[in-house]
């Protein structure tokens, strides 16, 4: 820098990333990946780049949406090892910022931002996914505190987490949306059992989680007792932007630029059909990234995306399906059978096999379309005969 001036925020981010982003090996053993991720998150925090717009008093950067956007732009050139923190940073943290008491924010946000405590989201159950308000996990009063019993499923990353945001039923005499409460749960507490579930990629991205008489203190309630639905809607709004808006990672085999490289490597770049599909993919990827940048800026400036998060989520899933079709068109047999020594071949196969989950996780495509139809397009609401009936009289899950 010249004349004793401070470097611009962009220069600081650029220099820091160039000096600090580690090389990541997608084939590295899980414990090693976790260590790398935690070390990197701590460094990110020390540099002031974790939670850039979050309140400085709780360890955030206290800066504006403009700085956050600059960081996103500069980081897009890298493959940051931050996937472990997607739910902490993209969903649970922002919900704590919105709804937590001063004591909860002071206790939980700093270690979350430093990557010392990792969070998960405990909503879905075997009998309650799209209709999550039908959940049956119970939270019953126990003096000042609560006792939790029930089961969650598809809990991403739970096997590596320290805390969870749990949605449980506190009043079965209320209609299903009204008797819910959100809690902060210590995932290491007695009575919590986490069992990893393997999917068709061969990996175990999610889990079953059992709660058997888990005791929680009174201050574990996040938001209001009985206000769990509003808290869930707040978190789901953050989730849709976070999932839909996740930056195409530099080494993501299904990102446009990597599919171009694959087409070049396999001699498919002169095929007019491949070229047309790649061009359409580029346009879709670019349009979504601009839409997401806009949603993020608005959200960071304090204007939540509301139902437009569903547009981002749905478009993100459709983009992945499109990219998967293009990958199949380019790679042909190479997408189904590859040299076992080829890391790139395996990464492509894993990415292709993970695509179907994109239109389920975080709310299915059909549910996003329902939300868009209802709340953006003003179409008539889906009929819901069970809305005003006390939960205990409904036939849902194992009840009734
Ligand atoms: C990779 C992955 C990670 C996940 N991570 C988490 C997590 O961390 N935490 C968590 O709580 N959950 C998580 N989930 C669960 C996810 O939120 C649910 O799977 C999802 O909400 C769908 O619920 P379901 O699987 O019970 O399907 P169902 O709700 O049983 O749906 C079955 C089918 O019916 C359709 N359908 C249902 N209702 C309607 C309707 N009203 N209108 C039109 N169609 C409808 C659905 O679109 C779907 O096609 C994850 C899921 C996946 C795949």
Automatic annotation (TrEMBL):
Q: Name one Pfam family in it.
A: Acyl-CoA_dh_M
- Where do the Acyl-CoA dehydrogenase/oxidase N-terminal domain residues begin and end? 5-116
Listed cofactors? FAD
Q: What is the organism field in this record?
A: Amycolatopsis rhizosphaerae
Specify whether Oxidoreductase is a keyword of the entry.
yes
Q: Which UniProt keywords apply?
A: FAD, Flavoprotein, Oxidoreductase
Q: Which GO terms describe its cellular component?
A: plasma membrane
- Entry similarity comment: Belongs to the acyl-CoA dehydrogenase family.
Molecular function via GO: flavin adenine dinucleotide binding; oxidoreductase activity, acting on the CH-CH group of donors
SUPFAM superfamilies, sorted: Acyl-CoA dehydrogenase C-terminal domain-like, Acyl-CoA dehydrogenase NM domain-like
Instruction: Specify the Acyl-CoA dehydrogenase/oxidase C-terminal domain's residue ranges.
Output: 226-377
Please verify whether the record's keywords include Acetylation: no
Occurrences of domain Acyl-CoA oxidase/dehydrogenase middle (ranges): 120-214
Q: What is this protein called?
A: Dehydrogenase
């Amino acid at each position: 820098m010249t004349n004793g001036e401070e470097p611009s925020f962009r220069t600081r981010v650029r220099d820091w990333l160039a000096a600090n982003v580690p090389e990541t090996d997608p084939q590295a053993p899980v414990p090693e990946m976790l260590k790398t991720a935690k070390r990197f998150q701590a460094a990110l925090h020390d540099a002031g780049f974790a939670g850039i717009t979050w309140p400085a008093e709780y360890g955030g950067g206290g800066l504006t949406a403009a700085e956050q956007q600059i960081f996103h732009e500069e980081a897009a050139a890298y493959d940051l090892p931050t996937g472990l923190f997607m739910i902490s940073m993209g969903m649970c943290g922002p919900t704590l910022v919105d709804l937590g008491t001063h004591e909860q924010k002071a206790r939980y946000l700093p270690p979350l931002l430093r990557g010392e405590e990792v969070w998960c989201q405990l909503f879905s159950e075997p009998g309650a996914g799209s209709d999550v308000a039908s959940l049956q996990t119970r939270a019953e009063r126990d003096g000042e505190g609560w006792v939790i019993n029930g089961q969650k499923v598809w809990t991403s990353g739970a096997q590596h987490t320290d805390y969870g945001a749990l949605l449980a039923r506190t009043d079965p005499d209320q209609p299903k949306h009204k008797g819910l409460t959100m809690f902060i749960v210590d995932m290491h507490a007695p009575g919590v059992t986490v069992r990893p579930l393997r999917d068709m990629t061969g990996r175990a991205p999610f889990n079953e989680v059992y709660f058997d008489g888990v005791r929680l203190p009174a201050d574990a309630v996040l938001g209001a007792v009985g206000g769990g639905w509003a808290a869930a809607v707040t978190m789901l709004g953050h989730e849709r932007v976070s999932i839909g808006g996740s930056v195409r990672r530099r080494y993501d085999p299904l990102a446009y630029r990597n599919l171009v490289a694959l087409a070049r490597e396999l001699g498919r770049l002169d095929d007019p059909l491949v070229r047309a599909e790649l061009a359409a993919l580029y346009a879709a990827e670019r349009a979504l990234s601009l839409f997401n940048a806009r949603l993020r800026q608005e959200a960071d400036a304090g204007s939540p995306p509301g139902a437009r998060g569903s547009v981002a989520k749905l478009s993100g899933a459709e983009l992945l399906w499109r990219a998967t079709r293009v990958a199949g068109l380019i790679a042909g047999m190479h997408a189904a059978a590859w040299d076992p020594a080829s890391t790139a071949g395996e990464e492509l196969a894993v990415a292709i096999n993970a695509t179907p989950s994109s239109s389920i996780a975080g709310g299915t495509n059909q549910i996003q379309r329902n939300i868009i139809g209802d709340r953006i397009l003003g179409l008539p609401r889906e009929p819901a005969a069970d809305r005003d009936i006390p939960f205990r009289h409904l036939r849902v899950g194992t009840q009734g």
